[in-house]
Specification:
The chain is α/β, with parallel strands linked by helices. The chain has one domain: 3-Layer(aba) Sandwich (Rossmann fold), CATH 3.40.50. Strands 2-3-1-4-5 form a five-stranded parallel β-sheet. Helix 8 crosses helix 9. The longest helix has 17 residues. The chain is globular.
Length: 208
């Protein structure tokens, strides 16, 4: 980690446990003396809040509208002059994001052309490509059970049928972009500590 600061994106279907792994990795890197900035998408910006309102059924939004809002939210996430990811990278932080553009490819690619979604996010990819995309792979059935146990209400994309489709689209996107993106797939059906150790191994292999 000392060679330069890294941008690490965590990916996975809802309920995969990636948010926990973001926290565990951040804690571990900070203990080792690294500067770490953790963030997530959709963001807490006004655009991100609009996305969350659609997800929680507080307002209506077509899938194409949602995809467009994510493009805007992601660019704002990158370019915000105070705490945008590019600013944090420039300031020497290792940036860890809970979701980035592969989430759009997978979730929106189930409802429209994935190529359109990839093209729409091309500017974000040009501005900042992850040093590693860490995919926490969990069986959709396991994921749904976790969601039911931990949430008071189920959001827009959180159905077993959709999570199966999204996982398939993740695999399609990883294959489609295998020449330009570094992806580390981790079995997320195991205990948190074992997964966290595998996450560290993924990061240690960057650049090797």
């Amino acid at each position: 980690m000392s060679r330069r600061n890294l941008f690490i994106a965590f990916e996975g279907i809802d309920g995969s446990g990636k948010s926990t792994q973001v926290r565990l990795l951040s804690d571990r890197l900070i203990q080792k003396g690294n500067k770490v900035y953790t963030t997530f998408e959709p963001t807490n910006s006004r655009i991100g809040t609009m996305i969350r309102d659609i997800f929680s059924h507080k307002m209506e939004g077509d899938h194409r509208t949602i995809a467009g809002l994510f493009v805007a939210d992601r660019l704002d996430h990158l370019l915000d002059s105070q705490n945008g990811m590019l600013k944090m990278m420039k300031d020497g932080f290792n940036v860890i994001s809970d979701r980035y553009y592969f989430s759009s490819y997978a979730y929106h690619g189930t409802h429209m052309s994935m190529d359109w979604v990839i093209d729409a996010n091309a500017m974000s990819a040009a501005l900042l490509r992850p040093d590693i995309n860490i995919f926490i792979d969990v069986a959709p059935e396991v994921s749904m059970e976790r969601i039911r146990q931990s949430r008071e209400s189920v959001e827009m994309y959180e159905t077993l049928e959709n999570l199966k489709a999204v996982r398939n689209k993740y695999m399609e996107a990883f294959e489609k972009l295998s020449g330009v993106e570094k992806v580390c797939m981790i079995d997320g059906n195991r205990d948190q500590a074992t997964i966290a150790e595998d996450v560290l191994k993924c990061i240690e292999r960057i650049g090797n």
